[in-house]
Amino acid sequence: MDVKIDSFTGPLDLLLYLVEQKKLDVCEVSLAEVADQFLAIIKQIDPQNLGVVSSYLVVAAKLIVLKSRAILAELCTNLSSTETEKYKVTIASLHIAEELLQQLLRFRAYKKLGDILSTHVKKRQQLYTRKPLALKNPDEDFNSLTVQKLKQILAQLNQKDIVSSSNLLQKVFSNTKVSLEEKMLYILKMLQKGSTILFSQLIACNPGDRKQIVGTFIAMLELAKEKKISIEQQHLFTDILMQEL
Amino acid sequence: MVKALLEGLLFAAGEAGVTKEELSAITKEGCSKIASLLKDLEQDFKVSRRGIQLKLFHNKYLLTTLPEHHSYITKLPHIRDSSLLSRAALETLAIIAYKQPLSKEKLEQLRGIRSSRTLKTLAEKKLIMATDSEQGPVYHTTDTFLNYLGLSSLNDLKETALPLVKE
Predict the structure, then answer these.
(1) Above 0.90 for ipTM, yes or no?
(2) B148: nearest CB among A121, A128, A132
(3) Which of A30, A115, B112, B148 has a 20 to 30 Å separation from B23 between CA atoms?
(4) What residues contact residue A163 under an 8 Å CB cut-off, 6+ apart?
């Protein structure tokens, strides 16, 4: 019999297959009957894969117990009554058999339930729907959010000094004027030093001052419109790279 | 006309679907009125032999194609046949569906094999989710699970399967 171990979901699946192949009922005797086959097939498992090997071995051990018990029972028929009594005690203590049997019966029920689920799924997959029109899916992004990432974002915020509350209060009352021409000249001047510059570098000298930041941003857009510089942003909310044209 | 509005809303909602209550809140019509209009709409689709039908999955209404059109739809160049779950995943899903909330240990005991990877796959597909309990994390099925199986509630499943699991 050519049986591939990979096609089974676990030891119980294999055991059930072997019993059903022989057209046997799930009972102690039939389990003992397939023990040899079970042992032969599980030799295919990669010994490196400890988790899988051990779960198959647990079942294999129980099958060996069952098989010994079947052999003992056969022997008992040829023994004197006192000896039979002695063996019967041994046999009775092997409640492992009932355990495995129950486990297998339960597994068979759940396997059938899996088949029912599968028919539901197949029926459902014949019906097509469309993706929702709006792309609002808040829980999608939160899944990828880790503590590490939050920490990183907070560090960036602190660097930009936007969250510093003492600064914030000051800004509310300040009334400085920002000249667009001045800002544009400033950007061009900074660009002459190196051929490219990041937006974050431009605002580094006045962190937290929103008016200055907004002014610089508008000046940058204005320069781009006049085709004096090119601007590039890799992703949403990341730094902007400017280059003189 | 509210019925036309409902049709538009259902079209926009797509596979996410929309509940009776949500429709009621948007249209400012009572839930019972919405229910009867939806029944009307469902009949309209049937009577005029349209290629779209109204379905109710996990308490949400959604528009779907007809099952008999399945083989044609898969011939569209950009439509791919949805993938099926592996046998191990189906087995695990079945156990969780009937025994939820269920711990990983109990699951592994029932399956007789380690199940971390299968659980991870199912969680990634959002078919199951873990919540905390006094005994550590336990697994449940999700609304996505009901939509995936085309069921309106878990009870649908329990009824068909009760004779199978006697415990």
Answers:
(1) no
(2) A121
(3) B148
(4) A157
